[in-house]
Write a structure and sequence with these properties.
The protein is of the alpha+beta class. The chain folds into two domains: 117 residues, N-terminal domain of MutM-like DNA repair proteins, CATH 3.20.190.10; 136 residues, Helicase, Ruva Protein, domain 3 (Orthogonal Bundle), CATH 1.10.8. 24% of the residues lie in helices and 21% in strands. Helix 1 crosses helix 5 and helix 4 packs across helix 5. The longest helix is centred in the C-terminal third of the chain and has 26 residues. It binds zinc ion. The site of zinc ion (ZN) has 7 residues, from loops.
Length: 278
């Protein structure tokens, strides 16, 4: 599932290719793709693309006259940019034809197709309205972070991936952030002391910026189809040695999602019972 670093790269790679172009038309090839009803998709025709950005895990196309297209790629979607003359395939869920002979397409192989789009006349509307603070923004201060997290009787990993609190962190980067902060994913947020909260707050933008740099150095100017995560230190590395201490990386299911951690660096042993229970 693309997370904040992936979407930052997609937006940065796509922007120079499509900003300034005019949309000739758009078509949702999968009936569930478009989640908004007003304005209609036909409104895209004739609009210029003024910017490509991101909010949380949504890719945003900013269009002339105050319209925005928000796209959520969910688990398996990706963005394709190429010549309109290539036929859409069964994997194409949405396409926008541009005036330079190219298309922007949302591709999602297999079923069910979960990628979704919203055509919005304001960024203050759902699904964007309820999103939390952007972790790479100036607004992500220690004070704000502590206000969001402190006292919550929920496991800290669940707090980190709650899009209404902090927007853009998913399962993989939550694991990386907690490893960088040397905190167990199973700790309850309300048990974190001042120093631990500050360490976690610092780790969030550090890990996300590190990931953006790592992905960029690997994909260059390409729009990649597979998430580039070979550089991750704990997530997806269950059983392999911790890059810091050599202890085998542990893995448990937390809310049906894989959680990977170093038992030693993240002091998971101090919380027996919690690791298997969720
Ligand atoms: Zn370790």
């Amino acid at each position: 599932m693309p997370e904040l670093p992936d979407l930052e790269i997609i937006a940065a790679v796509l922007a120079p290719r499509v900003v300034g172009r005019t949309i000739r038309g758009a078509e949702a090839l999968h009936p569930a793709f478009l989640q908004s009803t007003e304005p209609p998709l036909a409104e895209l025709g004739g609009r210029g693309i003024t910017g490509v950005g991101r909010r949380g895990k949504y890719l945003l196309f900013h269009l002339s006259d105050g319209l925005h297209l928000a796209v959520h790629l969910m688990r398996a979607g990706w963005i394709w940019h190429g010549a309109s003359r290539y036929d859409a395939t069964k994997s194409t869920v949405f396409r926008m034809e541009l005036d330079d002979g190219n298309d922007i397409r949302v591709i999602e192989p297999g079923f069910p197709k979960l990628s979704r789009g919203w055509l919005l006349d304001s960024l203050d509307k759902e699904p964007l309205a309820g999103l939390g603070v952007e972790p790479l923004s100036d607004g992500f201060t220690l004070e704000r972070f502590v206000g969001l997290v402190a006292g919550k009787r929920r496991q800290i990993k669940k707090v980190l991936v709650d899009q209404r609190l902090i927007a853009g962190i998913g399962n993989a980067y939550a694991d990386e952030i907690l490893f960088a902060a040397r905190l167990s994913p199973f700790r309850y947020a309300h048990t974190l002391d001042e120093g631990e909260l500050a360490r976690l707050w610092r780790a969030i933008p550090e890990v996300l910026r590190w990931a953006i740099d790592e992905i960029r150095s690997r994909v260059g100017e390409g729009l990649y189809q597979e998430e580039e995560r070979s550089f991750l230190r704990v997530h997806g590395r269950a059983g392999k040695p911790c890059p810091e201490c050599g202890t085998p990386i542990g893995e448990v299911l937390l809310c049906g999602q894989r959680t990977d951690f170093c038992p030693r660096c993240q002091h998971v042993d101090e919380f027996p019972g919690r690791t298997r229970r969720s």
